[in-house]
Write a structure and sequence with these properties.
The chain is α/β, with parallel strands linked by helices and about 290 residues long. It contains eleven helices and twelve strands. It has a single domain, classed as Spore Coat Polysaccharide Biosynthesis Protein SpsA, Chain A (Alpha-Beta Complex). Strand 1, helix 1 and strand 2 form a beta-alpha-beta unit.
């Protein structure tokens, strides 16, 4: 029996219906040999009930941290500390994956061969009415996503919805970095110590990560027409911290985060949190054996 090669990390915060749609999309993948970690930034019990219902259907882990504001970088690091696979993908809890999502990521990394790069995916934006319909109707509407998305938005949105061949090209441009749909080799994330947890509040922790990866020699590979996700409508997050976070992301910084997967000495590499302070206010629920 071969071990799973990839883990999909799904971030969420108090949006159980959307999370249910995303996890349903993962259940419907054309391949099944992958792991899922839900990185939960302090949701209530309603979200836990949804996650618990998927334990029989997915190789699933639930990582939860206490609600202390928007701490996406921290909860993604918590998830990373529990990743044991070669590859890891990040998916927001409002982005429904196409049924070939996981297979596409594996295909794209195979096509990259030994070139050092991460995969930058894109999204098909769904409007409010369609998103509400999906939330109300549930999984029976999922097969019609592609058809409906092609008909309701401008060209660039429809273009992102159309599957097409992948041609690997690596570059080092920052424009269009989107943390809602990215995939990495785990060794590259470990080398820069993951996300920088000094980023709190919405915005730019993903750009900071990519800047530090560029500094370490890891480029960016654009993926359109593969690893497709459908982005459900929601009101914008509070962006009070966005300007400060952007200035921090653009400032001269070491490639390795001081407060990342490993805290304290950033030169120490480990796969699990060991400090008692890192375990406080955090929980991990594993699939029952």
């Amino acid at each position: 029996m071969t071990l799973p090669r990839i883990t999909v990390v799904v971030s969420t915060y108090n949006s159980p219906r959307y999370l249910e749609l995303v996890l349903t999309g993962l259940v419907s993948q054309t391949v099944s040999d992958f792991k899922v970690i839900v990185a939960d930034d302090g949701s209530t019990e309603e979200t836990r009930f949804v996650i618990d219902s998927f334990f029989p259907r997915l190789n699933l882990l639930h990582c939860w941290q206490k609600d202390a504001g928007f701490r996406l970088a921290a909860v993604r690091n918590l998830a990373l500390s529990n990743v044991s696979t070669e590859l890891v993908a990040f998916l927001d809890g409002d982005c429904i994956p196409h049924r070939n999502y996981v297979a596409d990521i594996l295909h794209c990394f195979n096509a990259l061969e030994k070139r050092r790069a991460y995969l930058q995916g894109h999204r098909v934006i769904l409007d409010k009415a369609f998103s509400e319909r999906l939330a109300a109707d549930g999984s029976p509407a999922l097969p019609s996503l592609g058809l409906l998305a092609r008909n309701v938005f401008h060209f660039s949105n429809r273009f992102n919805a159309i599957r097409r061949p992948f041609f690997p090209r690596v570059h080092f441009r920052l424009k269009g970095v989107r943390g809602c749909n990215m995939a990495f080799r785990m060794e590259d994330l470990v080398a820069v110590n993951g996300f920088d947890e000094s980023f709190e509040g919405w915005g730019h922790e993903d750009q900071d990560l990519v800047r530090r990866l560029f500094a370490s020699g890891v480029g960016r590979c654009e993926v359109r027409g593969r690893m497709i996700v459908y982005h459900l409508y929601h009101p914008e997050h509070d962006r009070d911290a966005a300007e400060e976070n952007l200035l921090r992301a653009r400032s001269p910084r070491p490639a390795r985060a001081a407060a990342g997967i490993v805290r304290g000495n950033p030169n120490v590499v480990c796969s699990k949190f060991t400090e008692a302070t890192r375990k406080k206010d955090r929980e991990i629920s594993r699939r029952p054996r």
